[in-house]
Specification:
Shape: globular
Strand order of the largest sheet: 1-3-2
Helix content: 40-55%
Strand content: 5-15%
Number of domains: 1
Largest sheet: 3 strands, mixed
Number of helices: 3
Structural class: mainly alpha
């Protein structure tokens, strides 16, 4: 089967993807906080909300320099339906969804935090790892 050529896509579908990604970040952070003895759910929620809002601002309008005298780099979080493996040509992963014109990580952070910390099923996102063999099942 021929791979679909890579194309950046600005589409409202990104809103669901971006929100789901933020819930995954909260889930990972919440797990690490629990592992390190932060047992108070209110404290974990406040930490999670603050973290997600700060990362939202960074993704929406931030930049960084990988080297002190390097160029400014702007984070661009994209999602694809194909896995970019070490042997996958970057121009063969098909559509890569980038933020739609109306999406803002910072603004979505609060709704995602509400969903995650209230136990809303929409805040719990199924995740898995890339299977090296199509016949493998995810855990």
């Amino acid at each position: 089967m021929m791979a679909k050529p890579t194309k950046l896509v600005r589409d409202d579908a990104y809103e669901e993807m971006g929100a789901a990604y933020q819930c995954i970040l909260l889930d990972r952070l919440d797990g690490v906080l629990k592992e390190h003895g932060v047992d108070d759910p209110t404290a974990r929620e406040e930490i999670g909300r603050g973290f997600l809002a700060a990362m939202g601002n960074f993704h929406d309008q931030g930049w960084f320099k990988a080297e002190a005298d390097g160029a400014r780099l702007y984070p661009l979080l994209g999602f694809s339906t194909e896995f970019l493996n070490t042997d996958t040509a970057p121009d063969a992963i098909g559509d890569v969804y980038v933020p739609s014109e109306s999406f803002s990580f910072h603004e979505y952070a609060f709704g995602c935090a509400d969903a995650y910390f209230s136990g809303d099923p929409a805040g719990r996102i199924e995740t898995g790892g890339f299977a090296m063999d199509d016949d493998d099942e995810e855990d």
